Amino acid sequence: MKTSTLTRVGLTVAMSAALATMSFTSKAQHGQDVSAPHKSEAQQDKDDKKEQKGEKKEAKEQQQKQHRLSQQQQQERIREQKRLLAEYNQRIAQQQAIALRDAQQLEKQKRLAHYRYQQAYYEQLRQQQARLANDRHDYDNDPFYYTPPTYQYRRGDAYYQTNQYGADQLRQASNTGYQKGYQAGRADKQDHWRFDYRGSFAYQDANYGFDGRYVRQDDYNYYFREGFQRGYEDGYYGRRTYGSNANGSDSLFGAVLNMILNLQPLQQ
Hints:
Elements: H1 3-29, H2 38-66, H3 71-108, H4 112-133, E1 151-155, E2 158-162, H5 164-190, H6 201-205, H7 217-237, E3 243-246, E4 249-252, H8 254-261, E5 264-265
Antiparallel strand pairs: 1-2, 1-5, 3-4
């Protein structure tokens, strides 16, 4: 190969290297990650997903506004809720007196474990009534009162409808019932007392944990007792047939809870 040809080749290679170095330096100076160009694609994908999530959230909020109850329907719900709340307040005051009387009976029977259980239950009722007496609930901004029904459930021979907030209250009733039932069953077992969940004041009262909202009191009572009966059986016999304990809290298994409630989505 001629010397002139070799010279031209050498110059071409040198110029290409210089241009590549200048490009690398320029990108580095402008903060670009020249070592991993695929990162920009990953960031774009992340931004796209974030944008899609925002669009879905906006669409959901828009849909909720479209299915929102009218102002008249909302006010009717609020008026009915306040009426039921006043009735519940009277009821829970009466139940406190009964709880104290039953506690005295337990003490006479030397059922000390159940007596302690009963005292704790009574204290909860007292706190619930105190909260009701100082009710400052913001009804107008509570989504329960403007959200239409989304579920149907059957209790006895009648069908009822509720929304997500009411459904959550029914779930709480069942799980709270299971928890208190488990404790009552263990207490009776410790006292060497007969198997008798119906004889427990907690089963008869069935208001533990109820704040008087979103569902009728008789609905809460019914599902509390459904959970209580199963919890009492598990506690009395020292097993976990219907529920479990997670992080110190007793609750029903999901399949058992679904069977009890049998919530059916309404066709929108």
